[in-house]
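Dear U.,

Please find below the material for section 3 of the report. The protein was modelled together with zinc ion; I have listed the sequence and SMILES used, followed by the predicted complex structure.
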Amino acid sequence: MIALLRRAGLVCALGAALAACGTAQPQRRTPPAPVSAPPPAPPTLAPGPAGLTPVFEHGPRSRGRTVALTFDADMTAGQGARAAAGERFDHPQLISTLRALRVPATVFMTGRWAEEYPDQARSIGRDPRFEVANHSYSHYAYTRDCYGLPTVPRKLMRSDVERAYAAFRKAGVRAPMPYFRFPGGCYDRRALRALTPTGVTAVQWDVVGGDAFETDADVVVRQVLDGVRPGSVVVLHCTRSAAPATERAVRAIVPALRGRGFRFVKVSELIGTVGGRR
Ligand SMILES: [Zn+2]
């Protein structure tokens, strides 16, 4: 489009001696825009009782052996100084391993993480193997007493979610999903009510990978393999400093689950199979 405008400008400049520019438009027809169907809207759950934000925990148990690996890309709003001092909240090797093993996955990203690692956020967000979902901007808790996290005041909950989407857009993430994971998984009715206007589906899990601060990959592998059932949602982390064994664990978990006949899917596919609305 810029090239076309430049060309039009050039025609204008050349024609200026002959006719007043602005009245004599170049007689060139704009080529039709390529026609492509808009991508289908991602499935979401219907609102819960009293219009509360719906909560999804796992897919159907009886419709095939599917499992969704989810990775929380955690970074809190207060950790900028630690990142500047060299702490790594990203995990590019984990993402490379998922690509190499051809594992689809859902990444629950904080807005602060996307600000710190915009190139990685964009790369994950433009790879059809992955979907980016919202893990808040600040990674502050939406309830009191949630693993010692600072608390988001209720009136700022909605804007904390929206600010994360703005950070994703700024990084170049295409079409982030309308799914939200509460920091620490902590929520109550107040939080669900506060987020209703955003239209997100809250996504929890039924299998805790236990990779936070775990250094022994075998512990994570055992915990995941013991917990997974058809339709499971597994929570793991995409944060090198806080989840140092996750990448090694994934390299063992993936072939083991495939050997049991499991197929890896993204959260959107599980929500779609439980009758999520499009
Ligand atoms: Zn988190």
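For the text of the report, you could mention the following: Confidence is low (pLDDT under 50) at residues 1-26.

Regards,
Y.
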